Amino acid sequence: MRDQAQSLRELARAAARAARRARVVTVTSGKGGVGKTNLSVNLGISLVRCGLRVVVVDADLGLGNVDIVLGIDPVRSLSDLLYGGCSVEDVLEPAPGGLKILSGGSGVYELASLTEAELQHLVHHIEQLDSLFDVMLLDTGAGIGPNVTSFALASDEVVVVTTTDPTSLADAYAVIKWISARRPDVSLNVAVNMAPDFREGEATFRRLDSAAKRFLGVKTNLLGVVPRDEAVVQAVKRQEPFVLASPNVAASRAVDAMARRLAGVPQPEATGFGGLIRRLLRLER
Ligand SMILES: Nc1ncnc2c1ncn2[C@@H]1O[C@H](COP(=O)(O)OP(=O)(O)OP(=O)(O)O)[C@@H](O)[C@H]1O
Ligand SMILES: [Mg+2]
After folding, report:
1. pTM
2. What are the backbone dihedrals phi and psi of residue 102, each rounded to the nearest 5 degrees, phi first?
3. Which residues are 192's β-sheet partners?
């Protein structure tokens, strides 16, 4: 009897541990400059307002500007976790809106050349993040390159950002094609940014979704349409996240709605941070 009760307790604990794994969401795009970094940061802050613990990872190799959008100056990066003897808490930078930031820095390159022992050490540390966060948002660069797409391939969920511009749409389709051919199980969300209005944004999504369905056999979800908003441009200039600087403008309300949608969707089984790193390395080796 006692043994059975104990096994049940262990099972419950294991289930709780599994449920605690963070969702890993990669924000990417085909074309550059469509608003990935701004959406990652502001969506992150809105998710914090939904009661979630969020870390934004600047995974845009060498070009990331999560820090600029937030007006912060991170002192440590993933490299300090890999080689600097730092703990996970040490490399997390507090940011406005209750966000935490992890700068990838050159550590993202170094991942590929780690020894097995270094890798185990890293996975051990990274897994601690699962108890600290509910969501990890990875801000990546644009396009189909091994460095960008390996994050998307290693995640549970992807947000492909596009504008209503036909070239941006065509490039978003190419990214969806690339990812879905390699990870048919990944959850594909689309965010249409800088839309002249909601109808046009939604029409852009419908074009993308029907092409994806027809030619690739994959379903995408509309995460949201964010209008082109002068408040965003002004907030970027002031290095303030727009959802904090101008919470009531159309773009902020749209991002809040996206966060509520993302927080509310039934999530695929989260693999957590350790799973992300393991998948990344399997892809790169
Ligand atoms: N909703 C919006 N309304 C108006 N301007 C916007 C909006 N979203 C983004 N922008 C403008 O687009 C610029 C680029 O945004 P951001 O840096 O987030 O793009 P990105 O996709 O991360 O670029 P990169 O591909 O270089 O990483 C911002 O500096 C801002 O001026
Ligand atoms: Mg960017």
Report:
1. 0.88
2. -120, 115
3. 162, 225
Q: Is the Cβ atom of 32 under 6 angstroms away from ligand 1?
A: yes
Residues 152 and 140 sit within 8 Å (Cβ to Cβ): yes
Q: Whose CA is nearest to atom 9 of ligand 1?
A: 35
Choose which residue among 37, 192, 197 to substitute to test ligand 1 binding: the one with the highest number of ligand atoms within 8 A of its C-beta: 37
Ligand 1 lined by 31 (C-beta under 6 Å): no
Q: 3-state class of 282 per DSSP?
A: helix
Instruction: Kindly give, in sequence order, each residue whose CB lies less than 8 Å from that of residue 35, ignoring residues fewer than 6 positions away.
Output: 161, 163, 193, 194, 226, 232
Q: What is the pLDDT of residues 203-255, one digit of tens each?
A: 999 999 999 999 999 999 999 999 999 999 999 999 999 999 999 999 999 99
Pairing of strands 23-29, 221-227: unpaired
The CA distance from 280 to 233, in Å, is: 34
Q: Ligand 1 pocket, 60 CB below 6 A? A: yes
